[in-house]
Design goal:
The complex is a heterodimer of chains A (266) and B (253).
Chain A: H1 12-42, H2 49-59, H3 64-86, H4 95-133, H5 136-142, H6 147-184, H7 190-199, H8 203-229, H9 234-265
Helix pairs in contact in A: 1-6, 2-6, 3-4, 3-6, 4-6, 4-7, 4-8, 4-9, 6-7, 6-8, 8-9
Chain B: E1 8-17, E2 20-30, E3 35-39, H1 46-54, E4 61-66, E5 69-70, H2 76-83, E6 86-89, H3 101-105, H4 107-110, H5 117-130, H6 147-159, E7 165-169, H7 177-194, E8 197-202, H8 205-211, E9 214-219, E10 222-228, H9 238-245
Parallel strand pairs in B: 3-8, 3-9, 6-7, 7-8
Antiparallel strand pairs in B: 1-2, 1-4, 4-5, 9-10
Helix pairs in contact in B: 5-6, 6-7
Classes of the chains: A mainly alpha (266), B alpha/beta (253).
Chain lengths: 266, 253
């Protein structure tokens, strides 16, 4: 194939933008193919239910303490902020309503997504990346084990199942944090606070939170597995894969959160 | 032996990475039951040769036959069936860190599923015994073993499914001379006892002479010499002479 002629200097910025855009599309294509291959292979035996449960514990159960702490402090801080702002125009009674809506619709799913991405995406990328550079992935292949079925699929499905459960827990803990601060520090009446909380607790909001959580779980595991699988270049490569997994998971969580919110309320 | 098809036959195998030619028309035949060592500098394409035969890499040109069957372009169940003939000892052992030793050893039989634990532990123990390890290591993790012990466990994993062909990728790298010799002895006895075909890539001349019936030298992507191990220091080939004597001066730059 003849080498393409270099672009004139005037066109160089456009060529650079073009390369960037093509590179981005190529990356999206690679990620999409990776996801499709993982899901496609997971549908065929052998299945690894034990690996799925193991990952469910890693992603869900062992992330609960950090998610719980994040949720309780966020719920309490939210209640305090709404109270402070609301007291300027005699709207302190909105505290329970805003806490429940804010936690369920936005803060619960997004904070859980970000915390789990930080904890799990990085761990997945580091583990699978290390397996790549130490030839463990090649060893799996020579031992006739499909790494998509054995490594990727259990992580992907476990994250999609675990995240909604964790968001449910985070929402409950966050609302509890708001209630605790409102009753103990701001001297709200406990029964009234809970009555208003129940009034503003909507099944549709919970459904949207579950959808968001499932999507976030998918992106968290996909980014961890994808960047780990494509690792090259030893310890530095594992470091890069870990960083890329976390950054890309964060970006996907925040952008998909906006898109889902815009679709539902737009 | 001469009338049967070679166990492994490479014919004009070429492979390049981004314009860098690593294999440039490699021709090689390994007979059934034979132990062949490939020597050559780092980056000469030894590991790529093994990976092409195993289907981990696809050659750009050429043919690779195992038991007379073309393996280039195989995929799915056919590739799996072909791979079942192989065992592989990786340079860094490539044991699975997250699994205990007994699950590592039996991985080729279970494909990672946790089935028939009692029988699998018995199989692991039997294969560990063959490489000089006892049941005390069964439940340990790879990180709890020394480098030499990890190599032995990797050997046990490679032989556990009783493959017809075993590849050894730098089996003695990183080991002291005594442990290296223990591994060499193990390889020789395993190849003889199990009657397997063995292909070893190594820089270690003592290892090549001990393990192999024949030795081939790979240089700039081509086999430049192949002959019996006894001729290794008397090959009359300037590339082999320079390499085995470890001289800086010579045709290899």
């Amino acid at each position: 194939m003849p080498a393409s002629k270099p672009a004139p200097a005037l066109l160089a910025p456009f060529a650079a933008i073009g390369r960037l855009v093509i590179g981005m599309f190529a990356a999206v294509g690679r990620v999409a193919l990776f996801a499709l291959r993982t899901i496609g292979r997971a549908l065929l035996p052998p299945y690894y239910p034990g690996r799925f449960l193991e990952q469910l514990a890693h992603i869900g159960w062992f992330s609960l303490p950090v998610v719980g702490l994040t949720a309780i402090f966020t719920g309490a801080a939210l209640a305090q902020q709404i109270y402070t702002a609301g007291s300027r125009f005699s709207a302190t009674s909105t505290v329970p309503a805003v806490v429940v809506i804010g936690m369920v619709r936005e803060l619960g799913p997004v904070l859980v997504g970000l915390m789990v991405a930080g904890r799990v995406s990085s761990a997945m990328a580091a583990e699978i990346g290390t397996m790549r550079v130490t030839e463990q992935l090649d060893a799996l292949t020579t031992l006739r084990t499909d790494s998509y079925r054995y490594l990727m699929a259990p992580r992907l499905f476990a994250a999609v199942v675990a995240l909604p459960l964790m968001v449910l827990a985070a929402n409950a803990i966050g609302i509890f944090g708001g209630w605790l601060l409102a009753v103990q520090k701001l001297h709200f009446n406990s029964a009234n606070y809970l009555t208003v909380t129940r009034q503003y607790m909507s099944v549709d909001d919970f459904k949207m939170a579950m959808v968001k959580a499932g999507v976030f779980g998918f992106f968290i595991a996909l980014m961890g597995c994808y960047h780990g699988y494509r690792t090259s270049g030893g310890a530095a490569g594992v470091g890069n894969a870990t960083r890329n997994a976390v950054v890309s998971a964060f970006v996907l969580i925040l952008s998909s959160n906006f898109l889902i919110t815009a679709m539902v309320f737009g | 032996m001469a009338s049967a098809a070679p166990k492994i036959l490479l014919d004009g195998v070429s492979k390049e990475f981004g314009g860098n030619v690593v294999l440039d028309g490699v021709n090689l035949a390994v007979e059934a039951g034979e132990s062949l060592a490939i020597i050559g500098q780092s980056g000469s394409g030894k590991s790529v040769t093994l990976k092409c035969i195993l289907g981990l890499l696809q050659p750009d040109h050429g043919s690779i036959k195992v038991d007379g069957e073309e393996v280039v372009g195989l995929h799915g169940a056919a590739l799996d069936r072909m791979r079942a003939k192989f065992g592989m000892l990786f340079q860094g052992s490539a044991l699975f860190d997250s699994l205990p030793i007994w699950r590592n050893v039996t991985f080729g039989l279970t494909q990672g599923r946790r089935t028939d634990v009692t029988r699998m532990k018995a199989i692991a123990e039997e294969n560990l015994e063959r490489v000089g390890l006892d049941r005390r290591v069964l439940n340990l993790r790879p990180s709890e073993l020394s480098g030499g012990m990890q190599k032995r466990v990797a050997l046990a994993r490679a032989i556990a499914p009783r493959p017809e062909i075993i590849f050894f990728d730098e089996p003695t790298t990183g080991l002291d001379p005594i442990r290296a010799d223990v591994i060499n002895d193990l390889i020789v006895s395993l190849v003889e006892d199990l009657g397997v075909t063995a292909l070893t890539i190594t820089h270690d001349m003592a290892s090549a002479r001990k393990i192999a019936h024949r030795v081939a030298m790979l240089y700039e992507g081509k086999i430049v010499w192949i002959g019996p191990r006894d001729r290794l220091y008397d090959s009359g080939n300037p590339y082999v002479d320079q390499f085995v004597q470890g001289r800086a001066e010579g045709p290899i730059q």
